[in-house]
Amino acid sequence: MTTTDRLSHNQLILKALTWLKTTKKCATVLAELSSVRREIPDAIGWRARGLSVLIECKVSRADFLRDHQKSFRLPGAGMGRERWFMVTPGVIKDLDEVPAGWGVIEVRGGRCYQLRKSKPFELSPKASQQEIFLLSCAVARVQGRGSVAPIQDPATFIEQRMQLGKEIRQDQALPAPVEDQVDLDGLRRDVLQRKVRGQVRALGRAAYRLQAQDLKTLSGHLAAVTQALKPRKTSLVTRPAIGTAV
């Protein structure tokens, strides 16, 4: 195996995304989009008329063999009307190891070589629902972020994740900070506000247990407690006022 063939899993996913866009002409492609479902495709795209193309990327033989044990690899299960393995040299020693119907793409020297073509799969109703759910999760995330970048260019997401991994590894090599800066004023303010809300709720519950003639007394107590716990305007840390209202 040459140096150019030693691709990481993220780099192989980038190859898969490019292959889906250029070779398969997929208009929509997604990369490792997690959801509540168990199956998380490394890369999946949709061609015209909703034909889905799924790619599983494997850079180690052990990972390839473990993939056979997944429940959604059983006949009649899983997503993708076309299903492919994209691997580096040495991962698959014999094409007979590949599940029936799956295609194989091997990446050598930065180029993709098709070793076996994928046969069409019939999706079960559950698998079709999983694909719809996956697309709905992608749309929901886009609407939440106010941007269509995660769907239009998932390769950017993979590249950013690779860069983040490098930054994390660099940070781990640095000594840990001596002391973390804690916003003590903010903590005291939050604690005091919770106490105020607790006092007000307690007095509110007591109102239902009092008779009508005692409501006036209760309102006076409530005003006194609110005034006593009112934060000062001149201090960042909220403290109860000294004394109570007369």
Strand order of the largest sheet: 1-2-3-4-5-6
Number of strands: 6
Strand content: 5-15%
The topology string of helices and strands comes to: HEEEHEEEHHHHH
> What low-confidence regions span 5 or more consecutive residues with pLDDT below 50?
146-152, 175-182, 234-239
Indicate the structural class.
Answer: alpha/beta
* Separation of the first and last Cα atoms: 86 Å
Largest sheet: 6 strands, mixed
Tell me the count of domains. Answer: 2
Count of helix runs: 7
As a percent range, the share of helical residues equals: 40-55%
Computed Rg: 30 Å
Rough outline: elongated
Quick check: average pLDDT?
76
Concise structural overview:
By secondary structure, this protein is of the alpha/beta class. It contains seven helices and six strands, in the order αβββαβββααααα.
Describe the model:
This protein is an alpha/beta fold and 246 residues long. The protein has two domains: 3-161, no CATH class; 184-228. Helix content is 42%, strand content 13%. It contains seven helices and six strands. It has helices spanning 9-22, 61-67, 125-145, 149-152, 154-173, 184-207, 215-228; strands spanning 28-31, 43-46, 52-58, 82-87, 103-108, 111-116. 19% of the residues are buried. Mean pLDDT is 76; it is low at 146-152, 175-182 and 234-239.
Labels describing this entry:
2 domains, 42% helix, 246 residues
Secondary-structure blueprint:
Layout: H1 9-22, E1 28-31, E2 43-46, E3 52-58, H2 61-67, E4 82-87, E5 103-108, E6 111-116, H3 125-145, H4 149-152, H5 154-173, H6 184-207, H7 215-228
Parallel strand pairs: 3-4, 4-5
Antiparallel strand pairs: 1-2, 2-3, 5-6
Helix pairs in contact: 1-5, 6-7
